Amino acid sequence: MKKYLLLFCLMALVQVGFAGSMPDTDRKISSDSVIIEFGKSGKVVIIVDNKEDFDKLKLMNINEIINELDLAKNESTGDLTIVEIRDKNGNSKEVVRVSEDGMNTEVQIGGMRVFVDDSGVNTKVKIQSGLKKNSDPPFRTYFNIDLGVNNYLDGSGSFPTSDNPYAVKGWGSWNVGLNWMAAQRISKGFYWDFGLGFNFYNFKFENRDFQAVRGDEMIEFTQRSDVDGFKSKISASYIMATSMLELDFGRMNDNGKKGMRIAAGGYVGYRLGGQSKFVYREIGGSGRRKDKEATGLYLNNLRYGVRGEIGFRNLTLFTTYDLNTLFQEGKGPELNPITFGIVF
């Protein structure tokens, strides 16, 4: 039933396209012929010389037509190329292709696809036109930017409260990532995303009168009562490597970007730098002054964790969680950074 329906649909599409684009006054076509048009100027014409041959053609189903063409089937993919164009250099371009997967069949003619689902009680046919060339290439590269806000969880798995000198102020604790990524298609709608990038994040303290300084054996948070604190934070930068597996439900259902995407994986980074910054005013009035101090000796050089993403259309949200602590063991409070943000 599926094969007959496909042949009927394809011939109907051909007749509609032919009737609308080729008036009788411009061209004379034999009534004992079948014309298949594709692209802007492509055409396949099947011509018979007599009524008996034409009647035989009408009685043939799509399987018989394919057998008469003596085409080779790709055993690994199940695809069958019916029409192929080759240039003088030997390069080929598929024009008509048939793919079968159990009770599902897909026929592609140039920029048009016909999907037939015969798995249910009723056969379902879907026609998709206007496909872009290489809309889902097997391998692609791209660049994106992460923008998020940072916090961290303490040893009990909670966000530090305001009575801790290192409690983070959400607004101003920015995370910025610059990522050069690649995506390898594993199967339809399933991808391996991986890449390298640079990550800059800082933790702006809610208690802005406390300054992070490097002590003799560990980082210390000193309350500055001699000045009016304006801003206090710790910042660090890393070179990062990321690897994730992604499911794109839109592409699985042939809806392009009109579907939900989820991805999960891990990352590892190596620290490039780190410092504390304290901005203050003198008591009694003065301009802003800054004290910067390298606290990198007590920050972990290696950073690793897990990353998750969820997206719909052009919006993608991400979260990361460091499995190791921000500071070296015994050199500072036990804090695991966590980030929430958006991908551009």
Would you kindly provide a written description of the structure presented here, covering whatever features stand out?
The protein is mainly beta and 344 residues long. The radius of gyration is 32 Å and the shape is rod-shaped. It contains 4 helices and 18 strands. The chain has helices at 2-21, 51-59, 62-69, 249-252; strands at 33-38, 42-47, 79-86, 92-101, 104-109, 112-117, 124-128, 139-153, 174-187, 190-204, 210-214, 219-223, 227-248, 260-282, 289-293, 302-312, 315-322, 336-343. Helix content is 12%, strand content 52%. A hairpin with a 4-residue loop joins strand 11 and strand 12. The strands form 4 sheets. Strands 8-9-10-13-14-16-17-18 form an 8-stranded antiparallel barrel. A 5-stranded antiparallel beta sheet has the order 3-4-5-6-7, covered by helices on one side. It has a two-stranded antiparallel sheet with strand order 1-2. The two termini are 47 Å apart. The chain folds into 2 domains: 2-128, no CATH class; 139-343, Porin.
Measured between the Cα atoms of the first and last residue, the distance is 47 Å
Give me the count of strands.
18
- CATH class of the largest domain equals Mainly Beta
Q: Write the H/E string, N to C.
A: HEEHHEEEEEEEEEEEHEEEEE
Strand order of the largest sheet: 8-9-10-13-14-16-17-18
Residue runs with pLDDT of under 50 for 5 or more positions? 15-29
**Number of discrete domains:** 2
